[in-house]
User: Fold this.
Amino acid sequence: MALRLPPMQALRAFEAAARVGSLTKAAQALNLTHGAISHQIKSLESDLGVRLVERAGRGIRLTDAGERFAIRVRAAFTELAAAVNEIAAHANPRQLRVTMTPSFAARWLLPRIGRFLEAYPDVDLDVRASLALVDFARDDADVAIRYGHGDWPNVHVEHLLDEVCFPVCSPRLAGGRLPIRPADLSRYTLLRSNDEFWKPWLEAAGLDWPEPARGPIFNDSAHLMQAAAEGQGIALARTSLVGNDLRNGVLVQLFDVELPLSRKYYLVYPARMANSPKLTLLRQWLHDEIDLADRQ
Assistant:
């Protein structure tokens, strides 16, 4: 009797955990909970009748059977993704699938995307907003805009945009009584982010303060900026995510201390896209928009 093929979601959960060596990181990569990943892997082990992973400190390690199975599953996903990409390219040759973080999509791309559509009506942008790091060998994506240090392996990486950070708030905060000096921040709510920490900027401003441990914390920079715009407190803003709100007066920059960040934005794509005319158009448009923002 032939063994029933395990569910695709269980195979994806196992492959992700095997690749990163952690249930927590696998959950983050797939936008699932730790419990969901654990359940899928246990279900897969039950279906196959073999132990695939074992606890190892804070992470996991594969059993011998798990190692062999992971190699085959990874190869199968790579082949499946290649087939999907090939079919998609033939079915809709105008489509360009682009992934990026939700905050960059909401705060940088969406206010500008109309100009791309007007300039290049023959390109159908398929924008996928996700915190997960796309794997071009497994996922149906053509190109990504990533925020980081540019050290991702097995992909082409091109620098797009530098970042600096600085405090911002609503001009209506505290009835318009805004802080005048950095030291005045001690009397205000500091909005926190999982992405950027206050302490490096505080040190640049000459303040030997610890990282704030109280106050709202956000895992999405777009939500952080919205909270600041609503007068909920003072946030550290990144240049790319705050430009329109500063020009429109929704937010104001506090002080003149700006901190350059080590992480930057990059255009990232697999080798198969290196000579793509659609990617060439997107690349040129991105640089044109960045140059325009620098002049404003």
About this structure: The longest helix spans residues 64-91. The chain has a mean pLDDT of 89.
